[in-house]
Amino acid sequence: MKHWHRRSDGRIFWWTLCILLGAVAVHVSRQTRLYEATGVLEIPRPKITVVGNHEVVDAEIRSEYEVNTVLEVVASKAMMLRVLDRLTVGDRDTFFGLHGISDPSAESFQRLIQANRTLSLDKAAFAIRMSLRHPDRHMATRIVKLFLNECVAYEARVRGDETKAALEALERRAEAAKHQAAEMERVSVDYRNNHSDLNGAALAGDESYQALLKKAAVEKNLSEMILIRLAEARKEDGGVATGWRISKPPLTPGEDDYLIMPLVVTALWGTGIAVVGGVLSAIMFTRRPPVVAQTKAL
Hints:
Blueprint: H1 2-29, E1 35-42, E2 47-52, E3 57-62, H2 67-74, H3 77-86, H4 89-97, H5 106-116, E4 117-122, E5 127-134, H6 137-194, H7 200-205, H8 207-238, E6 245-248, H9 261-285
């Protein structure tokens, strides 16, 4: 009798397990395939610049960008909205429709991007790797490409604004230095005219006059140096500036290059649930042997 009950337990367990595993197999086969596209945004490396004068020469490392700050810009909501604005009506239908979303709002776009995008930072290579998963392989590539292009365009706009502001500040400084040099030249001439009784040798020994001449020379040299730097800055602004760039554009995955890991995770969870369900079914639905009452012998 006990052997029969053990066999009955086993049958219930295996029947339940097979039925649930069949349901898991059907469920996994009906899951949406996800494709992943990956691109890399490269940041300029720090430059080693020699600074100092004839007496002291030192070297310092200067970088216009801090990689963690760049990562924050790439992951920002503002960048997501820029990409959303670039999507056509057809793009939005494909992007949201395959996720089963009928409301193509900015909040839905942000939530889907955050759930399906991976950003990794490579500080050694000064690069940010972006990967995006989507049921449509072409859409996955398009979204990554839009993000990278918008990042490059954003940095170019910021760099252009900063360059323009720096040039304007340098122009104002050059004008002020030019005016100051002319003013010091006028003061030294007025001093000489007001002391016409002093001859050349006397002027050479006049400390006040010599101080004015020295200050006028300093102001003139400073003005000339600023004008030279302004000319160099204008030349640099007219050239090709190096900034953020796409070192690895995203490639469209092949038809059979879908991600297997989400399917494996779903299958593992389903198998675990099937095993637990089989055990519980065997415990709950097994017939128990009748309890035989024992009578006491009189």
